[in-house]
Amino acid sequence: MRRSSEDHPSLGGSLLSDFILGSQDGVVNVLGILLGLLAADTSSRVILIAALAALAAESISMSAVAYTSTLARRRLYLSEVERERREMAEMPLEEVEEVRAILRDWGYEGAEQEEMLARIRSKPKAMLDLMMAFELHLAPVDASAAGRSALIVGVATVVGSFVPLIPIFFTSSPLTIAIGSVVLSGAMLFAIGWYEARTTLGSLWSSGARMLLIGLAAGFAGFLIGHILGSLPAG
To answer: Average pLDDT for residues 184-212, to the nearest whole number?
Structure first.
């Protein structure tokens, strides 16, 4: 039986956030390094070596962070499930009152509320899922989510990191490299923000512009640091 996206309502959002996290970090990190080294009058060869080293380190680091953080969320959810089960067995009246409060917040009152409460109490799993989602505000994390998140973040980081480096393969002019990197990185960042708004909610243009400004601000910071350090006397 084919499973639709409705079977995993949080999967699409998780994949999107992983893609945005990795690609944005890759673009911003390498763009800042590249502009900083260009401002310090570093050769194209050294810039490429440094940027590729940063790309490798950043992609591995981001993948590891994505894996461990997703695994931690899964462990937290599972531990809270066990705690909630114990409370349902040991303190059933308190748990029923918590469900009643949730139903009250949803607008159920009187006989309608009691009917809904009785139906929920008759299905322990439904009651457990209700408490996890609406009392603790926790969503289940699939066993394969950590590996999937690490892969997506790692690949997205590599792709994002490579974008600012493209001009280096076509020219040795520092000014052309800088302009080309800023333009390509800006386009990538805007596209990331635009895609985020398109698949969620929000203005396509404002989301794209926000992502663009964040990335270029980081790139400018790298340029400024490189310019200051490059102007210091050697030795």
So the answer is: 75
Residue recorded with tokens 């499973």: 3
Look at residues 37, 17, 60 and name the one whose alpha carbon lies nearest to residue 164: 37
What percent of the chain stands above pLDDT 90? 22
**Does this model's pTM top 0.85?**
no
Cβ atoms < 10 Å from Cβ of 64: 13
| Residues 194, 183 contacting (CB under 8 angstroms) | no
Residue 123: how many other CB atoms lie within 10 Å: 11
Q: Identify residue 6 by its one-letter amino acid code.
A: E
Q: Are 24 and 192 a contacting pair, CB within 8 Å?
A: yes
Q: Are the C-beta atoms of 25 and 58 separated by less than 8 Å?
A: yes
Domain boundaries, the chain: 12-89+144-228
